[in-house]
């Protein structure tokens, strides 16, 4: 495989919890992201799944340097972007763009579509000379399947799916290499989601984009992703290719998550075995010791409370040629083919 | 628990008539831009112990129908020009406000999507649960609180006795939705309407909440109307399905049949657009176009501009719900072809 375009190493983001108004003192921290590492290769889609509060959106912001990382590094082509600022950061951001979840609040209602999509050119004027911009914006509208004549319309004149296309066009404007999509289709109607997913796949082929696709809808993530990472409470529980994760999950959390997804097929539903987890996700301000999933895990033993399991290929599968041999952070990893 | 008041139901009617029957219901909203016909002649029925799933996208009229049943529709701007809502054989639309109030909460209860905004943030959950008993059954505060603890126990909220004085923000999303369920169950209603009860929840919690709801439904033999846009949730719990599009029911069927052989192109399109294993790497099937604007619903079949099978007749004639097999109906001129493909 070629060189990774993004390398994330031990990325940590703690949000401080403070007490007092005048003399603030830190009384703790919300450990939103607590040591995450992964690579993104050119032209691939890495899906990140997890429940709300697991830190997946914080990861997205850290990759864009919209949040300052507490520690850890994000290398873009070998350069650590977490410590960049000013001009150097601006240059990197040209290549890493973002598409947001909510197409209703992420577009300024007082700007025309032309202004919204053209705004990146104001910040990076070298990409498109002034006289050329209108044409560029119209081309972008065409690329995302909107009528180029809509350039003077306002966001409220579009439906949710169309607005998300505008958001995607804005993300594409600077010809980035990486697009980070934070729940790009979850706010859309079911019949429109497929249209946007297809558009994103088409654009990836056309422009050779790498995606980080953050979502909670496991079936869409599987469809679009080459590799998938499963997050739980600020940590990566398991990461592997889509087939490894979906067909041979070895982490109990992944197994439970997959089995809890409602399957739109009554026949299949009667055959499969469901794992219903008890309780809720613990607070990231006070995560359990050792393995963070142990409070809801049916396999938990003493070691799980004491030792943090590392994200690595489990030793039981290490020398075997099996799809279960992928990175999983569990002391008792087992091939969950039967459970899923 | 005893139900104090019996609304004068016709003797024997409850045995033969469905628990709830909606007949030719129309709801419209008068807006500045014209009349939006949100519901255009909806018919469905639910029996005791049965789960009907009403499936549709935003703007399909699924929630408006539910609000009309509950009698919580804002009127004006809403208006019900036509239709009947029969609860145990009696038309609720013809009842006085007082009569309806006696049914609401006591016989028909509703669970809303967003538990946080449906609960009062400045009152403890115990107070809000107890309110049901104080208002409807005239219990004292103390007795009502005891009942509230009992209810919280029943929806499996851990340490109910200690948490009864907590406020809604102190509970997680899943726990809040359990409180909503507890509130709906409080007076042991015969019908529960759940409007997207798990949409705001994570999948692992969603599974817990749906299981709880299904279990309680069996225990009390209640009718359940589950309103959702999620084909997966429906497959898990429903007995029968009504698919809505632009204010009409386009297909009804028992749950198994609809997934194996949909009889309406809209249902079929929705099912096909779900990502599946064997289609990975290929383009997803996508229904073209957008859901219609209710101020300008297309003539004929409302789905015709998006339908791959549309012919001239679809643009001129509104299709009726054709019987398409036992317990099935499809509002498509070409339901046979859709089924047969």
From TrEMBL, chain A:
ABC transporter domain boundaries: 6-258
Record-linked InterPro entries: AAA+_ATPase, ABC_transp_ATP-bind, ABC_transporter-like_ATP-bd, ABC_transporter-like_CS, Oligopep_ABC_C, P-loop_NTPase
Lineage top rank: taxon: Bacteria
Keyword Transmembrane: no
Single biological process term from Gene Ontology: peptide transport
Keyword Transport annotated: yes
Keywords assigned: ATP-binding, Nucleotide-binding, Transport
A GO molecular function held by the record: ATP binding
Family, similarity comment: Belongs to the ABC transporter superfamily.
Descriptive protein name: Oligopeptide transport system ATP-binding protein
UniProtKB/TrEMBL annotation, chain B:
GO molecular function: ATP binding; ATP hydrolysis activity
Listed CDD domains: ABC_NikE_OppD_transporters (cd03257)
GO cellular component: plasma membrane
Compartment list: Cell membrane
GO biological process: peptide transport
Main location: membrane
Keyword hit for Methyltransferase: no
A Pfam family that the UniProt record links to this protein: ABC_tran
Domain named ABC transporter: residues: 20-271
The organism's place on the tree of life at top rank: Bacteria
Keywords annotated in UniProt: ATP-binding, Cell membrane, Membrane, Nucleotide-binding, Transport
Similarity comment text for this entry: Belongs to the ABC transporter superfamily.
PANTHER family: DIPEPTIDE TRANSPORT ATP-BINDING PROTEIN DPPD, OLIGOPEPTIDE TRANSPORT ATP-BINDING PROTEIN APPD
Protein's name in the database: Peptide/nickel transport system ATP-binding protein/oligopeptide transport system ATP-binding protein
